[in-house]
Amino acid sequence: MDANSMIKAARKSAFGLVLIVAAAGAVPAAAGGEVRALAVPIPSELPPGELGKTVALGRDIVNHTNTHPLSRQYVGNNLACTSCHLDAGTKPGALSFLGAASAYPTYTPREKQVITLEDRNLNCFMRSMNGRRPPNGSAVSVAIAAYITWLSEGYPVKMSLKGPFGPNASPSLNIDEDDGDVPRGKTLYGSACANCHGSDGAGVGKFPPVWGSQSYNDGAGMASDLKLATYLRNTMPLGDPILSDQDALDIAAYVNAQPRPRFVLQEHLGSGK
Ligand code: HEC
Ligand code: HEC
User: What is the pTM of this model?
Assistant: First the structure.
């Protein structure tokens, strides 16, 4: 099974179980995810009391990061976490949060240090959200970490040895990142993407921007053509991901060749650390 039919099979599986099957040999060298055979139900009931309220708050923030009163001050664009981590991080193959908490703390080569799940979330504020890093232990940070930990119930703790990725991180496409054909990507973008994301990349209505001042900055994971291509291959066009690996890479190369905010670490650290 390829990644896509795996995902489709997972969607169809009964009882709301997400079945992520390790297809030995068929899976290219993972960007990070150690693909593990797991069938873990997505939790449906919030924990009782204050804990449940905090988990629900975290879910709310993930869904409305750029407008929520607690988080919007830390966001510098028109994105929410769920713009990329689809369905608030519950969609397999779309940067899912399922199980992610089980992989941390872990070492990250980018920051050259051991980071916690909180740190991982806060780094997405600096880069993907082109904003400022909320302080560790702030209400925003605790709520998002509580939400992702709730989505990880039932996963055995296994600190990742392959960087900051959970057990359901999508394996990277097995394709040479430098082979993206920008002119071809432009044509494909026009036919497969522009009706939702705009021919100027600024997004249309509720559809989010993919370049320009309101998009992710050039220090974000998505600014890597390979990571963006892997994402597009698994998720876009939304609801009908039909791109070939090469289509996805060509479109990614085109999208990432367009203007977007520049990432300068010092401007994004906030008061956290
Ligand atoms: C523009 C798209 C985008 C947005 C918006 C975004 N992320 Fe991410 N996120 C990514 C990408 C891409 C990765 C994988 C990064 C990599 O491969 O380096 C990632 C990885 C992560 C991971 C690690 C997942 C794992 O498997 O361990 C967490 C946790 C995370 N993001 C949290 C968040 C939170 C919380 C927000 C909102 C505050 C957010 N992200 C917003 C693109 C995004
Ligand atoms: C039918 C409309 C639709 C089409 C067509 C579509 N997308 Fe999307 N895309 C979305 C929506 C909606 C989201 C955000 C999901 C959410 O907020 O729940 C999204 C999210 C994204 C994201 C992550 C968030 C961001 O804005 O950076 C990227 C990147 C992206 N799409 C690129 C593409 C590319 C490239 C194509 C063409 C191959 C494409 N999309 C086709 C609707 C669409």
Answer: 0.89
Both 126 and 12 in one domain: the answer is yes
* CATH code where residue 9 lies: 1.10.760.10
Closest ligand relative to 226 C-alpha: 1
136 C-alpha to ligand 2 centroid (Å): 30
Establish whether residue 251 lines the binding site of ligand 2, counting it when its CB lies within 6 angstroms of any ligand atom: yes
215 shares a domain with 82: no
**Looking at the structure, do residues 208 and 156 belong to the same domain, yes or no?**
no
Q: pLDDT per residue over 198-246, tens digit each?
A: 999 999 999 999 999 999 999 999 999 999 999 999 999 999 999 999 9
Mark whether 147 and 186 lie in a shared domain. Answer: no
Residue written as token pair 């522009």: 194
Distance of CA 250 to the CA centre of its chain: 20
151-207 pLDDT, tens digit per residue, is 999 999 999 999 999 999 999 999 999 999 999 999 999 999 999 999 999 999 999
Q: Which atom of ligand 2 is nearest to the CA of 215?
A: 27
86 lines ligand 2 (CB under 6 A): yes
Assess whether 102 and 194 both reside in one domain. Answer: no
181 C-alpha vs ligand 2 centroid, how far in Å? 20
Q: Which residues contact 177 (CB under 8 A, 6 or more apart)?
A: 224, 225, 226, 229, 249
Among 84, 97, 158, residue to substitute to test ligand 1 (most atoms within 8 Å of Cβ): 84
Q: Give the range of the structural domain holding residue 136, as residue numbers without chain letter.
A: 3-172
Number of domains in the chain: 2
Q: Looking at the domain assignment, is residue 39 inside a domain?
A: yes
